[in-house]
Amino acid sequence: MLDPAGPSAREVAALWWAMLVVAAVVLAGVVAAWGLALRRRSSPVADEAHDGRVAARWIVGGGVLLPSACIAALLAFGIPAGQRMLPSAGPPALRIDVVARQWEWQVRYPPHGVVLTNLLRLPVGRPVDIFVSSDDVIHSFWVPRLGGKIDAIPGRRNVVRLQADAAGPLRGQCAEFCGSGHAGMVLQVEALDEAAFVAWLAAAGR
Q: Which residue from 8, 24, 150, 151 lies 20 to 30 Å from 182 (Cα-Cα)?
């Protein structure tokens, strides 16, 4: 996931690193405030009005403003990144249908009549729309180095857009517990140069 091999995965990785940095800063601030509170000596003269104002500032600042700012920033970056993983009006994309079942993946190339099992081949540098569905229970399609995961739900077809930057092997995995064979529900992914992919698809579709 943190070694992206495509544009969608790069956005996921960048968002993850940004969240890690923000979380570390927030944690450091909380620990610092906790340390100051432990070192603070109580006043011999009680001032309930002052203590109430201090408590109110901490509640508003730390319990309302800080979480709201963090969530707003996360949504501002996360929603556009998620939208870019969906089919768009951009360049034409290759369509591949992936059907999940206990415990394998069936990969179909509709216009060519090619069907593979537990193997997904896709071209380099070209957007691919993966139409995901399930024949039995809920599964989750995920190629971590190419993009986010999407559920495979019986009776429903979900779509995720992937693109590989370079040729080579990748690994996909079912990311939703689907029964006793879940751990072995692996999808081998091969990114091929455009010319090699076109030649393979033409030969396989004969």
A: 8
Token representation of residue 16: 């993850």
- Output the pTM of the full model: 0.77
How many C-beta neighbours within 10 Å does residue 143 have?
25
Residue 125 backbone phi and psi in degrees, to 5: 75, 15
Our CA angle for 71, 72, 78, nearest 5°, is 85
CA distance 194 to 32: 54
pLDDT at 34: 85
Closest listed residue to residue 122, CA positions, set 109, 106, 139: 109
Q: Are 154 and 138 in contact (CB under 8 A)?
A: yes
Q: Tell me if 151 is assigned to some domain.
A: yes
Q: What average pLDDT does this structure show over 12-34? A: 88
Number of domains in the chain: 2
| CB-based burial label for 71 (10 Å; 0-12, 13-18, 19+) | exposed
Beta bridge partners of 105: 100
Same domain, 184 and 119: yes
For residues 5 and 86, what is the distance between their CA atoms, to the nearest angstrom?
17
**115: closest CA among 105, 123, 126?**
105
Same domain flag for 128 and 51: no
CB neighbour class for 31 (10 Å; exposed up to 12, middle 13-18, buried from 19): exposed
